[in-house]
Amino acid sequence: MKLTRIAVVGLLALIAATLLAIALGTVYVPPLTILKTIVSALLPGITPSIQSAADQTNQILIILIRLPRVFAAILAGAGLALAGTAMQGIFRNPLAEPGILGVSAGASLGALVSIAFGAISFLTLPLFAFVGASVAVLFILILASVAGNRGTTTVLILAGMAVSAFFSALTSLILVLASEYQVSSYIFWTLGGLSNRRWEHVFLMAVPVLVVGLILLYKGRDLDILLLGDEEARSLGVAPRTTRLLTVSLASFLTAIIVSVTGPIGFVGLVVPHIMRFLVGPSHRRLLLASAFGGAILLLLCDLVTRLVAMPRGIELSVGVVTALVGAPYFMFLLIRSLKVR
Questions:
Q1: DSSP string spanning 156-222?
Q2: Does domain 3-341 have CATH number 1.10.3470.10?
Q3: Residue 250 confidence class, pLDDT cut points 50, 70, 90
């Protein structure tokens, strides 16, 4: 399947899922009303000014409440799927996922420190989480660099395990000393969610997802060549170690940004690339593009499920719970299948 066809099909499916996610909720909004409200907000000088109270209510509901959450889901899903695809390509393992190098452990420690110090504003907590994730990734990359020519994927994985264990130990220590309210706030954050996300969170993720996504698409050919082996890659002009470290750094940075905003959301970066590999083939440029659309649609629909389930009782269900319910059975299927192949 060509890149253009993937882009067109993916964009149409994403638009349909976006309209569905904006329309459904505690208050149903017709698709024509959605389009009218968005056009009115984007082109206030061309379209008639909003007069009625119903139009003003729709504008608040769509522009300030649902759209930021929808775009946050799209960016987070696309970013996690891109990072997962890159990690699976680098480690040559379809069971690899974005948090394999301790990003989630570092972000969790940063978020807990933010909660413990009472700095839990809508941007302060993501900042602490991002710093924690970045420090974890930095430690891993330093260990890989010290290893020199031995800085293979095995070194990266082992370093990730060590750093994750260390950061998890620090998190456990702080939890022991934390108050009951701080512990409950931390547990809620670790479930991963998109509720109360604002345009500031969308803008925080937008540039990294777009920039890193374009770089990974550009490097897709190099990832394909790496699958042939290091000697073949060198003969074709690709530096294996540099390409691995660059790809791992980009994927980890992207994951850190997303996790800092949404909390840990599992299985999107694991399941989506594997499904898309069946649909578009193993070529990384096609796979990365298809996974970006697939991850955005999956997380968008999972978040819609959380809102629809919450409607009767008014309880906010974290989207990380839904992705785990969807992804865990598929992960077990992949695990059983890989064991049978061996």
A1: HHHHHHHHHHHHHHHHHHHHHHS-HHHHHHHHHHHT---TT--HHHHHHHHHHHHHHHHHHHHTHHH
A2: yes
A3: very high
